[in-house]
Design goal:
- By secondary structure, the chain is mainly α.
- Helices cover 86% and strands 0% of the residues.
- The protein contains four helices and no strands.
- Helix 1 runs antiparallel to helix 2, helix 1 runs antiparallel to helix 4 and helix 3 packs antiparallel against helix 4.
- The longest helix has 37 residues.
- The termini are far apart.
Length: 159
């Protein structure tokens, strides 16, 4: 089988995993949050943290490897405008994703403590949720633009 085709396939799968897992995690956390049920939120956040660990982290590690190998094999320069833009956006998405993972763990713990003590969700949970929600928009937008850049490979000139 053609190694370039395998690399492209792996890279596209990784991109789909990042986009799909990101959208799924956001959906399930938002739905759980809207219930206000601390036990349900804690259980959902536990699954979300696991999904981030298993799927998102694997894709986050694999993407630069498959992308780098693919660029090298196809003779693309890392200074090509579209590729450089994708790398900058990837770093930006990562800067938003890392705190989100930590925030999800904290929200899970706060929700579990509230459920265990039959208390309402604490103010800290709500503060963290707002930060988590706000971080999702630039990270998700960056992944969408990266996908477009991968497909369109537009001519971008950096000054």
């Amino acid at each position: 089988m053609d190694p370039d085709l395998i690399l492209r396939w792996l890279h596209v799968i990784g991109a789909c995993v990042l986009l799909g897992t990101g959208a799924g995690i956001a959906f399930f956390m938002l739905v759980a949050h809207r219930t206000g049920d601390a036990r349900f939120i804690a259980q959902t956040a536990g699954i979300v943290v696991l999904a981030d660990l298993v799927f998102t982290t694997t894709a986050v590690v694999a993407q630069p490897i498959t992308g780098g190998l693919l660029a090298w094999r196809l003779g693309w320069s890392f200074t090509e405008g579209w590729l450089l833009a994708a790398l900058v956006l990837y770093a930006m998405a990562g800067l938003f994703w890392l705190p989100v993972v930590w925030i999800q763990v904290q929200m899970r713990e706060l929700a579990q403590n509230a459920a265990d003590n039959a208390e309402p969700l604490p103010l800290e949970y709500h503060r963290l949720f707002r930060i988590w929600f706000a971080c999702g928009f630039p990270a998700f937008a960056a992944v969408l633009v990266i996908l477009w850049l991968m497909i369109a490979r537009p001519s971008i000139v950096w000054i």
